[in-house]
Each structure stands twice: as C-alpha cells, then as structure tokens.
User: Which sequence fits this backbone?
C-alpha cells in the first residue's frame, strides 16, 4: 500500500482514500497539464490517466508524482514531465499490435504507456540498476508485453528491429543512422536532438525512401551516453 503524507488528502489508513487521491491527481494532470496544452488523442489521455505514475517514482517523490515536472529516479536520471511523455506518445501514434522501441527506459513509465496503447515494447536502459528495477516493477504491475534490455541503445536494438515506433527518451546530438534504419515502413521516431543544454523534439517519419522531419518544440532531456550519443567524458564523470 502506497501512503505518503503529501497526497492531497493527507494521511489516511484507508487504502480506498489514498487510491482515490491518486486517481484525482491523475485526472487533474490530464485535464490541466495535457488537454489544456493541446494533447487531444483520447487514447493517450486515457493511458496517462490510468497508468499509476506514483508507482514509477521513488518513495520520497510519491506525493509529487503527478506534478507538472520531471522527477529524479536515480543519480542523474529523471522520469520525464507528464506533458512531454504525452506529447511524444501522441506524435508516435502507437497502434495496437505495433512494435515499439524505447531508448532510455528509465523507470519504465513511457514503456508502460506504449504497452497500454497495445504495442509490444522493447526498452533499452544503460543504467543496470534502473533496468533491473524497471523490469521488476513492470512485471509486478502485470506488463507482459514489455522487454527491458540493459546496455547502450544509442544505435537502437537491431535484434528486435524493425519498429513501427521508436522513442528516444534521452537527448542526442543527432539521430543515429543505424537507429533510423530500424524504423519500419510507415514508422515514426521521436527524439530530442540538439546540445547537452537544450534540444528540439523531432518527429521523423519513414514512407518508403522518403524521410520527413517535423519539430514538436524545444525541450530538455538528460543525455544519451554511448556510441550514437555523447561520450561519458563529454557529459561528466558521474552520469
Ligand atoms: N522514459 C524514461 C525517462 C528516463 S531518463 C522514464 O519514463 O523513466 C533517460 C534515460 O536514458 C536514463 O535512465 C539514462 O540512464 C538512459 N540512457 C542514457 N543513455 C543511454 C543509452 N545509450 N542507452 C540506453 N539508455 C540510456
């Protein structure tokens, strides 16, 4: 049972009250942070309402789980702000039965959203501890359609390619051509591309030989570290 003093209704021994409080917070998040800012896909809004975001954050952040900001999930890692997760998910248009890849799986939240939309998901996470924790968490929550891989996903994950959807959840200086080649016909890739400080969220679509790119706006993500991203030394010793 998750109990945290800063849930809106304060302390309670009633599980129903606590659950109700998170449910209210999730509904409020959907209306105020997502719908009002232009997220219209009802499937995405419903996924964001029902996936228990508070079960993906560390205990000390449970009370802030539905707030309008990213939250720390490990040494330097974060769970993305709800709006950014919704924006990426809406742009990626994952449909039931499609195959999706997430690079930078973190706590598993974005992967759970994609799975809720009916996709089979592969998530790659370079931080072994986070990968292990998210694997356990997703299993506990009953997501049989997500596989979590440890390691450098900056060049995608060739062994399960092609993908209808690729979501890169960490900032990258460019989109790796190797990763792009793993996008299926009609596939959509969403990635924050730019410098370490600031990026532009790009939607890349493949139609035959034609690749189109559209900007979804400015954003800030933690860096993608690896072969197709930044070198560890460029980012700092502790990331
Ligand atoms: N979508 C995630 C956000 C995680 S933050 C969530 O819902 O929690 C970005 C993650 O990318 C971090 O956990 C970081 O460890 C991971 N990462 C950075 N470089 C990576 C790489 N080359 N391959 C896989 N994961 C990487």
Assistant:
């Amino acid at each position: 049972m998750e109990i945290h003093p800063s849930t809106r209704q304060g302390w309670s021994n009633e599980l129903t009250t606590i659950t109700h409080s998170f449910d209210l917070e999730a509904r409020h998040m959907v209306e105020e942070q997502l719908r009002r800012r232009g997220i219209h896909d009802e499937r995405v809004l419903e996924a964001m309402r029902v996936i228990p975001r508070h079960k993906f954050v560390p205990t000390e952040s449970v009370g802030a789980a539905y707030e309008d900001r990213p939250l720390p999930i490990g040494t330097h890692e974060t769970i993305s702000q709800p709006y950014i997760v919704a924006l990426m998910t809406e742009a990626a248009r994952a449909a039931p039965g499609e195959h999706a890849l997430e690079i930078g799986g973190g706590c598993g939240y974005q992967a759970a959203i994609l799975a809720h939309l009916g996709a089979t998901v592969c998530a790659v996470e370079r931080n072994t501890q986070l990968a292990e924790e998210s694997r356990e968490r997703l299993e506990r929550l009953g997501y049989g359609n997500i596989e979590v891989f440890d390691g450098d996903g900056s060049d995608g994950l060739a062994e399960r390619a092609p993908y209808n959807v690729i979501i890169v959840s960490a900032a990258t200086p460019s989109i790796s051509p190797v990763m792009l080649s793993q996008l299926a016909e009609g596939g959509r890739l969403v990635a924050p591309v730019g410098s370490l400080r600031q990026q532009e969220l790009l939607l890349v679509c493949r139609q035959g030989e034609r690749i189109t790119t559209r900007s979804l706006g400015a954003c800030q993500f933690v860096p993608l570290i690896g072969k197709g991203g930044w070198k560890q030394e460029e980012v700092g010793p502790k990331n």
